[in-house]
Amino acid sequence: MKDILRRHSVLNDEIVDIINKQVKMEAQSSAAYLAMAAWCDKEGYDNCAEFFFKQSDEERKHQLKFFHYLVDMECEAISPAVDQSQHEFDKLRSVFEKALEMEIAVTDAIHDIVRLCRKEGDLATEEFLRWFVTEQIEEEYIARRCLELFDVLGEDKIALGMIEERILGVSYDAGEA
Amino acid sequence: MESTKELIYETANASLHQCDATEHYILHFGGDTVTFRACELITFKRKIQKIDLATLLSSETPDVEIIHMPHCDRIFALSIHNVLELKDLFGGAFTMLELNSVIHRQLVRKVF
User: Fold this and answer.
1) Which of A45, A51, A146, B105 could be stapled to A40 by a disulfide with Cβ–Cβ 3.0 to 4.6 Å?
2) Residue-level pLDDT at A17
3) What is the pTM of this model?
4) Looking at the domain covering A10-76+91-169, what would its CATH class be?
5) Chain B nearest C-alpha distance from A7 (Å)
């Protein structure tokens, strides 16, 4: 009897379910960053708005990367419904605090998938996730550094102006500098 | 074509066969016959497995679960007994299919 199942089904059900959950989480993050960008733009923080628009694009790319992986493996990829995002914030610092919390949640979720892959012996998906593990180191670093600008500079009008000037220059050099 | 059809698993009122020639699966259930490609069968199995029997039993609506399978433009109206039987069928059938995969991996594909 031919092994038809193996030819057409590469991932097991648990892996498919958890990746579909991650697709939704990335979509939710993308939408949340869009809402943050809108708030920043409305409040006059143009550079912060640009920063969050870029973050929203990044999350969308992550979502599609997971989505394409499922499709490529001939698995069921579910286009997710996205819940309402937080649109109102009391101050700029709160927006960046929310961003860091989101990135930590995404990191935790990706680590959970890696752990499941190890449990299931899915070496291919674990290898696929390696890029995301590294990416989250960068994402979390940038979110943390942005928040640290508030600690260093303060939150008065001059400080907020300085944060606006510096926010687009925050980057991660992977320890090379 | 019929000769390549092999029984994977059966229950009292349902059976699942595999056809090597067409690479399709054939479900016989309650007098009906439905043909699936591998990915369609997996989708159908996942829908059946995700049915929560406790919710179905406690529901105020009639205890029937509606499952739509677009690949054959069929709608299945499944009673609790039907759901239980299909869960049983797919549990057994996929265990056998995974066993077949293990045999292929250990014996058929192994070159050395």
Assistant:
1) A45
2) 94
3) 0.83
4) mainly alpha
5) 9
